Amino acid sequence: MADTHMNINQLHPDLPPFLRYIPTLPFHNPVILSLFKRLHPLQEKLAKPQPEVEICDHRLTHCGVRLYRATSTLKSRAAVLWIHGGGYIMGNAAMNDRECAVIARELGVLVVSVDYRLSPGNPFPAPLQDCYAAWRFMLSNASALEIDRERIAVIGQSAGGGLAACLVQRIAEAGDLQPIAQALIYPMLDDRTAANLRLDAIKHRFWNNKNNRAGWHAYLGQPPGQPNTPRFAVAARQTNLSGLPAAWIGVGGLDLFYEEDRDYAARLKAAGVSCELFEEPGCPHGYDVIAPNNSVSQRLIQNYLAFLRARLLET
Length: 315
Prior knowledge:
By secondary structure, this protein is of the alpha/beta class.
């Protein structure tokens, strides 16, 4: 579990000073969460066009997918499935237009972002089923999408990282064609962190343990930290991690998920799975989203781009 003695105010000196003054919203408050969710349609309407990237939406049975394809980059037949964050209780595909467009433009690959259903209205297994449906959509329509079924990577951010980790576990156990790689950006992997009430006293920036507990409770339909959880609901609860795709995990030293992410990386390596762990001291949750052009954020972004490039384009 996270170190309760960490100096949560010791931000990386190269991060912008304004990060110190951004409040951590109490998403565990149902009223605040409801108000925030009402902004989702507005966010989609105000989404800015991304230079040199075409964006289109496609409807699946229970969810949507948002497709990003570069218009000028030399195109590859590789592809990426992106899964957005939001603690399992908020967020949408449009919130990551910038990140998905960067991948499409830099790597020349198709990016498919899944707009999965959210908890508590749609708890587990609905969000994971939607991610699996997006995966099957890519495989079933590989010819029309002009992609190579065997050169698809899965990447997720925060709760999306947790879903990405669970998705590759489910695919592996089913014996399906696996992604070539998984990239997990400060992933939300272990409900037992939320059950550690000592962490409530630490003022983690942008996603604290009270929010974490509310997210897990809504997703699991039970308080986090129970002896048993549904299979493939919590990535860190999976006992056998062997046979999974090569992994990349990135996390900041001030992130609530720091310890659980390090532990999962160590378990992957112990199970014989290639895993790169990228750590940035003094960085809180979501720092790259809030200040994407900062040099510290760019190190994280360029690191996962390099991982994807190596796995998708150079192997």
